[in-house]
Design brief:
about 350 residues; alpha/beta; 3 domains
C-alpha cells in the first residue's frame, strides 16, 4: 500500500497557505490547493481530504506531492502539462505547399484525411498545421469583378455618400427584390423541440409572386417599401414619387441604385430633371455589394421569408410589412466601415490573383 508523504509546515508556510485558503480574491484553484496541503499537514489521508473538499483523490495526491518537492512555489503555479512536440519545419512547409498548390486526383480540394493519407502523416497533424496557418480548403467565397470603365469614380462617389453624406440631404439606397415567391408548405411545420430543430417539409406550392421595391435611409436606417406586379420604369417612377412625398421638401435627395435599364430610361431622366432636388448615383456594374439595401434584403430573406409559409401574395406582403415595421422601430444609421481606398486595394488584389492564379 502506498503511503502519502507526510507534510510538516514552517510557520511562514502555514501563514501563507491559510491566507490563500481564506482569500476572497484568490483563484479558486489556489484556494483548493492550499486547503489540500493544510489538511495533509494535519495528518489526513488523501481519501479523507478528497471527501471533505469534494474533489478527486488523484488531485489531492498531485498537489500533496508537488508541495513536498517544491514547497509553496509548487502549488503557486500550475503543474506542467504534456504537449505535442513541435513539427519539423520541412513537414509544415510540405503540408502548406501541397494544400495551396495541388488537389487530389478527381477532387477539387484536400480534406485532412485525404492529405494525411497522401503525405503519410496523421490527420491531426494536418489539422494542427491548417489551424495554425488559418487554412480552410473546404471553404469557398464567390466574387465577380466589375469591368465598368468608371468603376473607381462610381465607387468613390457612392462610398462618399455613406461615409460623409451631404448636409441638408437625405441619402437613399434603393433596389428591387424581384419575383418574391409566396411559397406554401404542403405539410405542417414541426415545432422546435428540446433535442431537434424545427422541421420543414421539402415540398411546397407556389402561390404567386410580387416585386418588392425598397429604400434604405442611410442617415436613420429606416426602410420604405412598396409592392408592384412588374419592374419597369413606370413602377420605378412610382416609387421615386413615393420617396418624394415622404421626404421633407427642404432636403435634397440622393438615390444610390444599380444599373438596371428601368433606372436609366428617358422617362426617368425627364422625371429627375423635373425634380431638381433628386440626384441619382449609380453603382458600378456587377457591384451590387456596394448598394447597402442589398444587405437589408439578405436579412429580410433570412429572418422573415426563408422559413415562412404563405398561402398567397397578401400573406407574403403582410409578413414583409410586419418585418419593416419592427425594423424601423429599432433602426439606426448605416455605419460603413470600409473606405474607398481600402476597397480599391482589395479589388486590385483580387484582380491580380485572377490573372496570375496565386
Amino acid at each position: 500500500m502506498r503511503v502519502a508523504p507526510p507534510i510538516v509546515l514552517a510557520p511562514e508556510e502555514r501563514f501563507e497557505l491559510e491566507h490563500w485558503s481564506r482569500g476572497r480574491s484568490t483563484e479558486q484553484r489556489q484556494v483548493l490547493r492550499s486547503k489540500i496541503v493544510l489538511r495533509a499537514a494535519e495528518g489526513r489521508t488523501n481519501n479523507q481530504i478528497a471527501e471533505e473538499l469534494g474533489t478527486n483523490p488523484n488531485t489531492v495526491g498531485l498537489w500533496r506531492s508537488r508541495f513536498v518537492l517544491l514547497r509553496v512555489e509548487g502549488i503557486r503555479r500550475d503543474a506542467p502539462r504534456a504537449g505535442a512536440p513541435p513539427l519539423p519545419a520541412s513537414l509544415v512547409e510540405k503540408i502548406v505547399d501541397t494544400t495551396l498548390h495541388t488537389t487530389p486526383k478527381g477532387e477539387t480540394h484536400w480534406s485532412t484525411r485525404t492529405l494525411a493519407d497522401h503525405l503519410g502523416v496523421s490527420h491531426m497533424t494536418v489539422h494542427r498545421v491548417w489551424r495554425a496557418r488559418h487554412l480552410q480548403p473546404h471553404r469557398v467565397q464567390s466574387f465577380e469583378l466589375s469591368h465598368d470603365p468608371r468603376f473607381e469614380e462610381k465607387l468613390v462617389d457612392v462610398v462618399g455618400l455613406y461615409v460623409n453624406p451631404p448636409e441638408r440631404a437625405i441619402v437613399f439606397s434603393v433596389a428591387e427584390k424581384p419575383q418574391m415567391h409566396a411559397l406554401g408548405r404542403t405539410q405542417a411545420v414541426l415545432p422546435l423541440g428540446g433535442s431537434s430543430p424545427e422541421g420543414r417539409p421539402h415540398e411546397y406550392t407556389r402561390n404567386g409572386t410580387i416585386d418588392l421595391f425598397a429604400a434604405l435611409d442611410v442617415l436613420t436606417g429606416d426602410v420604405v417599401v412598396e409592392f408592384h406586379r412588374r419592374r419597369r420604369h413606370q413602377e420605378f417612377l412610382a416609387f421615386l414619387s413615393t420617396l418624394d412625398r415622404q421626404s421633407p421638401k427642404r432636403y435634397d435627395v440622393h438615390v444610390i441604385l444599380d444599373n438596371l435599364s428601368a433606372h436609366m430610361t428617358e422617362e426617368v431622366q425627364r422625371w429627375v430633371h423635373a425634380h431638381p432636388r433628386f440626384q441619382l448615383h449609380f453603382t458600378p456594374t456587377h457591384a451590387s455589394w456596394l448598394n447597402a439595401v442589398e444587405g437589408w434584403f439578405s436579412k429580410l430573406e433570412r429572418k422573415a421569408l426563408k422559413r415562412g409559409s404563405f398561402r398567397g401574395v397578401p400573406a407574403l406582403q403582410r409578413a414583409v410589412r410586419e418585418y419593416v415595421t419592427n425594423h424601423n422601430k429599432e433602426a439606426f444609421p448605416l455605419i460603413w466601415t470600409k473606405s474607398a481606398d481600402e476597397i480599391l486595394r482589395k479589388v486590385r488584389k483580387i484582380q491580380r490573383l485572377s490573372v496570375t492564379g496565386h
